Amino acid sequence: TANDIFTQPLYMDLVYIGANLYQRLNLSGNLLADYYESSPWKDSNGTRTKSLAEFCYNELCMNLNFNYGLKEIHGIEKFTDFDTYFRYTGIRDDLLSTDAKTFATAVKDVCDFYFADIHSQYTLNSPFLGKDITIQGKTSTALKNYNEQKKRYALARNSAIGNNSLNTLDPAPCYTLSANGKTAIVRFDRFTDNLLTAEEIKNLTGFDDIMNEYATKREDEYDTITMIHAVNEKIQADSNIENIVLDLSCNTGGSAFSATFVLSWLLGETTINITNPLSGAKCSATYSADVNLDGEFGGKCDTVQDKNIFCLISPVSFSCGNLVPSVLKASNRATILGVTSGGGAAPVHYTSTADGTIFQISSKYVLSVSKNGSNYDIDQGVEPHYHINRPENFYNTEKIADLVRSINEAKFDIENS
Questions:
Q1: pLDDT tens-place string over residues 183-229
Q2: Quick check: 261 and 228 in contact, CB under 8 A?
Q3: DSSP letter string over 232-243?
Q4: Inter-residue contact 346 to 363 (CB < 8 Å)
């Protein structure tokens, strides 16, 4: 209960299993095994006491009342509270069940089917079930469609780079240059946390080697900030480059800190707006980034804002992959290409129930764009300025460069007419 109210909003998500207290972030390897083995609940044969089942249910309702940020967007606010919502959806009895598997299946259904916001997901079984039982639940049409789009765009990109995987997204270069050298395409499939210190980044040598390793290792070896630092040095040294295309067409989200760093690099300065729909509170924070790592912020070599900025998006562009084009479009300093992005307005809130079932939901800190003094959530996705209807055209460097050129020429003609 204290976790729901006090520690989780600080991203210190703690989990109790009847004996020990864990931090979810540390649950891996030996500690994950210990999570199940050290619990006095492990020999329960999947049966919870009636009092624990009732406590779990009431705690879950309170948790969601306090922390689920998309109640208004999903129409849940029309109900008095989540207890009423669960009554009307017909899953209250399953959520009150003493059978741990029935309860876990209902929690998974809440996340994957009823919420259907893609951020909300069932994560880990409680010790009552153990780690080897797989929970099968309902899947929403929204989640099915999103997964189908991921396969569709992955197949198109794999084919464009000469790979033949049908169900996975193969690594691709994170930096390509058009034949005339005027358009640079920068790709991120995920915004990853900063793993290296500034000194470690500055000591890296060999741009091409870093790029190749980055693609091959699926962005695990070098984080987003390291890559932007390297790409920025490449672009700053090449005066022939006029256009930057940020390819987020297969970007499923990730670290908001790294996404903000990329926005600061593109715009010089960026403002992120957050709304708490549960309290009505609003917050705006403005950032700049020391991209060249010289200890100073906002210098000419920290940004590419003097270039023509474009962003390539698709229905796969979700969460921070949706935040970045939302902010770019609201800035009126970038041109959005592709197909409407996948949405995702709220950062992930990691949480658990009182029996140690771990899941995640969309948090109460809803990312927004500001216009005329009002904040508007970005859950509906970003509508592009110019549509590209065929996924295979997303990954043809020269076709993208030609589109950029034609857009620039049209703008030039208008400005000088």
A1: 999 998 889 887 777 887 777 766 766 666 655 555 455 688 888 98
A2: yes
A3: HHHHHT-TT--E
A4: yes
Helix (H, G, I), strand (E, B) or coil at 267: helix
Measured CA to CA, the distance from residue 329 to residue 185 in angstroms comes to: 18
Q: What is the mean pLDDT of residues 22-40?
A: 86
How far, rounded to the nearest angstrom, does the alpha carbon of residue 285 sit from its chain's CA centroid?
A: 19
Pairing state of beta strands 14-16 and 270-276? unpaired
Alpha-carbon distances of 26 from 46, 129, 220, 287, rounded to whole Å: 25, 20, 18, 30
pLDDT in tens, 48-57: 999 999 999 9
pLDDT: is 383 or 7 the higher one?
383
- Range of lowest pLDDT (15-19, 64-68, 170-174, 230-234): 170-174
What is the pairing mode between strands 175-177 and 366-371? unpaired
Beta strands in 237-381 (DSSP E): 243-247, 270-276, 281-287, 308-313, 334-338, 348-352, 358-362, 366-371, 374-377
